[in-house]
Amino acid sequence: MRRTARPLTATALAVAAAALAATPAHGAPAGDLRVSPASVEPGAHVTVRTSACGQDGAAAGDASAVGAGAFTLAPGRYETAASGRFRVPPSAQPGTYEITATCAGSGRRVTGDLVVTLTAGHEQVHPRGSVKTGVGGALGPDPVQTAAGVAALAVAAAGGTWLLHRRARGDGI
Predict the structure, then answer these.
(1) How far apart, in whole angstroms, are the C-alpha atoms of residue 83 and residue 101?
(2) Of 8, 43, 46, 129, which has the most beta carbons under 10 Å away?
(3) Cα–Cα distance between 61 and 71 in angstroms, integer?
(4) Which region is the signal sequence (predicted)?
(5) 3 vs 6, 12, 49, CA distance in Å?
(6) What is the CA radius of gyration of the chain?
């Protein structure tokens, strides 16, 4: 069993490595619709690119799923991909939406996903203010409550010390 397990494991690892090396670096198969940025807030502008229509191919884009309607993808002067742009409506709800493009010459249809969020992915929200945990600390707003707390701690410490000394002497409790 061991003699066949090693070659099979090596073969499986080689196949997996070859499959990973064959996938494009950007994570999407060649010819798909690339949506940039992939995650936006309502009201943002989105750029869409595809190389599926060929070097001189134009395409008709459809962003009606998110409420933006139709837009045109045209090849750029120095680009091999057709690109277009649309604006996500301010009334768009959070979610994942499918954006499509249909090539003018071949009729090929490609799709890409757009994620609408309420906050931008690059922004971090930092907390402000203090934590509401109760009465307050040693430097709290009420010195009477602070003094009462210190007195209670002192009495507890003195009582604990007295009980420990009685137990050590053998007086019993």
Answers:
(1) 10
(2) 46
(3) 5
(4) 1-27
(5) 6, 15, 51
(6) 33
Closest CA to 49 of 39, 37, 40, 41: 37
Distance CA(56)–CA(50), nearest Å, equals: 12
Q: What is the pLDDT along the chain (173 residues), one digit of tens a residue?
A: 455 545 545 544 444 444 444 434 333 444 588 999 989 999 999 999 988 887 777 899 999 999 999 999 988 776 778 899 999 999 999 999 999 999 888 888 999 999 999 875 555 566 777 666 665 555 556 778 878 889 999 999 999 998 888 877 776 66
Contact call for residues 42 and 88 (beta carbons, < 8 A): yes
| C-alpha–C-alpha distance, residues 17 and 36, integer Å | 29
Helices (H), the chain: 2-22, 143-169
3-state DSSP assignment of residue 120: coil
